[in-house]
Design brief:
The protein is α/β, with parallel strands linked by helices and 410 residues long. It folds into 3 domains: 95 residues, Helix Hairpins (Orthogonal Bundle); 154 residues, Heat Shock Protein 90 (2-Layer Sandwich), CATH 3.30.565; 113 residues, Response regulator (Rossmann fold, 3-Layer(aba) Sandwich). Helix content is 45%, strand content 18%. The protein is built from 10 helices and 12 strands. The strands form 3 sheets. The chain has a 5-stranded mixed beta sheet with strand order 2-4-5-7-6. A 5-stranded parallel beta sheet has the order 9-8-10-11-12, sandwiched between helices. Strands 1-3 form a two-stranded antiparallel sheet. Helix 8 links the parallel strand 10 and strand 11. The longest helix is centred in the N-terminal third of the chain and has 57 residues. The radius of gyration is 26 Å and the shape is globular.
Length: 410
């Protein structure tokens, strides 16, 4: 066996150093690219927050003009609501991408009523299209016959989120023609959902980066520049967490079709599901009844107060958990508590647990801005009977209270 000479060692060492330098250069390049993407993301984020906030604050100020015609007031309110929803979606995306990065995003597998979710999205996005006059789009939902009551085992919140993001993207990049979505059952063991559009398409050079975080399709059309570039990355991560895969077919100026497939695990719950509309509110007369609202934010309390005025219910208010406990102890006519969770002095979870010690049967509904999956379970474990996430809709608020208050329809 020949001896290794110092020259051989030097040559080997030089080769290893060369490899290390190449790896270092590659790592520096990736780090630099990552920093550029994150910088672009932060710049976009500032723009994306300020854009809806400008509309919300601007049109709120215009509403103070007492000479506004009712039709103009209605239009301004619709603009404020639409931009509020955009802002909420942005916040949800930021939270989700942070949870995905930290590997803390939770999946809750339960019954998912497929057609109910798709119909809700059809109604919601059709409404959005109507409010955008420059859009000349036909939104279509196609579902296979014989599956009207299809219920599968997956996370319905995340299932809906993936489809919603894909439809939103399709509408964003399509200015005329159609956006079509639906699903097919493949080999009786896979559900494949698709969203197809006649939009601007995706160039071949963007195909490899379309699902990367902070990446966006380059376009010269200013109407397509909105967004932070995390939507498709979230879709990819969620699909994989649900045990599926996502892909697309697209050419520049030829439209795009996005697909994602999930294992088809049918639930035993195959009953028909009705969809409540925004206006589906039964009018209750709760005259002489009393509930306690635990809320430290004045604007949030006033919203709850004005929303409940139609029911004629009497309200007590606590600003923190300690006040809530005292008011429940000293007012035996309180029939229900709307409990905020993030409170000063004592939080809603702790206050609920104390109240449960002396009022075990008093209905307590958590109303909180902690709206991520798992928060409802946490509220129920603390002793709450139900849970509503902020922003709270009028329908959800009144109908949720109605489940616990003896009521008479007017």
């Amino acid at each position: 066996m020949s001896e290794i000479t110092s020259s051989d060692l030097l040559t080997q060492l030089e080769a290893e150093i060369k490899q290390l330098k190449a790896k270092l250069t590659e790592a520096e390049s990736k780090a630099s690219q990552s920093e550029k993407l994150k910088s672009a993301f932060l710049a976009n984020l500032s723009h994306e927050i300020r854009t809806p906030m400008n509309a919300i604050l601007g049109f709120s100020e215009l509403l103070t003009d007492y000479e506004l015609e009712p039709m103009m007031q209605k239009e301004y309110l619709e603009i404020i609501k639409s931009n509020g929803r955009d802002l909420l979606q942005l916040i949800d995306d930021i939270i989700d991408i942070a949870k995905i990065e930290a590997e803390t995003l939770e999946i809750t597998i339960t019954d998912c009523h497929v057609n109910k979710i798709l119909n809700e999205l059809l109604i919601s996005y059709n409404d959005n299209i109507v409010r955008v006059p420059e859009k000349n789009l036909d939104l279509k939902l196609i579902t296979p016959a014989g599956n009207q009551n299809l219920v599968i085992e997956t996370d319905p919140y995340r299932f809906k989120q993936i489809i919603s993001n894909l439809i939103s993207n399709a509408i964003k990049f399509t200015f005329e023609g159609s956006v079509q979505f639906g699903y097919k059952i493949i080999n009786n063991d896979t559900i494949r959902v698709y969203v197809k559009d006649t939009g601007i398409g995706i160039s071949s050079e963007d195909h490899n980066t379309i699902f990367e975080k902070f990446g966006q399709v380059e376009t010269t059309d200013f109407r397509s520049r909105r967004g932070t570039g995390v939507g498709l990355a979230i879709c990819k991560s969620l699909t994989e967490l649900l045990g599926g895969k996502i892909w697309f077919e697209s050419e520049k100026n030829q439209g795009s079709t996005f697909y994602f497939s999930l294992p088809l695990v049918k639930s035993n719950s195959q009953s028909a599901v009705t969809t409540d509309s925004v206006e589906n509110i039964i009018h209750y007369d709760w005259s002489g009844r009393r509930i306690l609202i635990v809320e430290d934010e004045e604007s949030n309390f006033r919203y709850l107060k004005y929303t409940l005025e139609i029911t004629k219910i009497k309200l007590l208010r606590a600003h923190n958990g300690i006040q809530a406990i005292d008011l429940v102890k000293n007012n035996n006519d309180i029939e229900l508590v709307l409990m905020d969770i993030h409170l000063p002095v004592m939080n809603g979870y702790d206050a609920t647990q104390v109240i449960r010690e002396f009022k075990p049967d008093l209905p307590i509904i958590a109303q909180t801005a902690f709206a991520m999956p798992g928060e409802k379970e946490k509220s129920l474990e603390a002793g709450c009977n139900d849970y509503i996430s902020k922003p709270i809709s009028r329908t959800d608020l009144i109908n949720t209270i109605a489940k616990f208050i003896n009521k008479e329809n007017t």
